Amino acid sequence: MRNLIISAALVAASLFGMTAQAAEAPAAPYVELTNPVPVAVPGKIEVVELFWYGCPHCYAFEPVINPWVEKLPSDVNFVRIPAMFGGPWDAHGQMFLTLEAMGVENKVHAAVFEAIQKEHKKLVDKNEMADFLATQGVDKDKFLATFDSFAIKGQITKARELAKKYEITGVPTMIVNGKYRFDVGSAGGAEQALQLADKLVDKERAANKAAAN
Q1: 200 close to 180: Cβ distance less than 8 angstroms
Q2: H or E element: which one contains 32?
Q3: Model confidence pTM above 0.70
Q4: How deeply is 124 buried, as exposed, middle or buried, from its count of CB atoms within 10 A (0-12, 13-18, 19+)?
Q5: Which member of 82, 184, 201, 205 lies 3.0 to 4.6 Å from 93 by CB, making a disulfide possible if both were Cys?
Q6: Which pLDDT tens digit goes with each residue over 137-188?
Q7: Could you give the CA distance from residue 169 to residue 163 in angstroms, rounded to a whole number?
Q8: Strand 76-82 to strand 45-51: parallel, antiparallel, or no bridges (unpaired)?
Q9: What is the C-alpha to C-alpha distance for residues 33 and 41, in angstroms, rounded to an integer?
């Protein structure tokens, strides 16, 4: 009887240890979306970065992510989407979408970040935006006309809908191929976030090849 009691105690202890190990197992650094979101360019693996010009973490991510974007293979499509949670988020998001529509976003993106993060410019009023952007070579009148255009309103609606579908709660957040969501914090850092993005891109590429065979 004593041996049975000892055996039972050992089994219980072993089960407890297994349970404790399971509880301590690290969570996956990304979330797989229940409802995948269609990509912008069919046939390409999409990587999305959701950001805000007023976010210091997004600003710190810039010198890490930009060189990575420049080296992406041709089968990967990188997309920036402004997160719009109201107030200055909306103003800055509308500015980004306007610059993107004008085809000058790549030329002034860094300057806008610097103005807001380092020079502490608010850039929440469209006229203030236009005056600053004029110093960067952006046509003031064209910017103001585009800013209030019907096309930009449509892009704002689209950006908000995508953020909702991605179920984001903060920035910077990355989405790979409309399926996997993670942020710099959950990935363990900026470099780790891009390494994770690479792994998920590879995973999607392998899945595409398997489906084609």
Answers
A1: yes
A2: strand 31-32
A3: yes
A4: middle
A5: 82
A6: 999 999 999 999 999 999 999 999 999 999 999 999 999 999 999 999 999 9
A7: 9
A8: parallel
A9: 19
Is the bond into 42 cis (omega within 30 degrees of 0)? no
Written as six digits, the tokens of 193 are 């976030």
DSSP annotation of 174 reads E
29-78 pLDDT per residue, tens: 999 999 999 999 999 999 999 999 999 999 999 999 999 999 999 999 99
- Cα dist. 132→24, 56, 93 in Å? 51, 20, 16
How far is residue 158's CA from residue 166's CA, in Å, rounded to a whole number?
12
The residue with tokens 């959950």 is 186
The dihedral built from the CA positions of residue 52, 108, 139 and 100, taken in this order, carries a sign that is negative
Structure tokens at 26: 């690290």
Superfamily of segment(s) 31-212: Glutaredoxin (3.40.30.10)
Contacts of 193 (CB under 8 A, 6+ apart): 61, 174, 182, 183, 184, 187
Beta bridge partners of 176: 47, 180
- Would you say 148 and 87 are in contact if contact means Cβ atoms under 8 Å apart? no
**β partners of residue 81:** 50
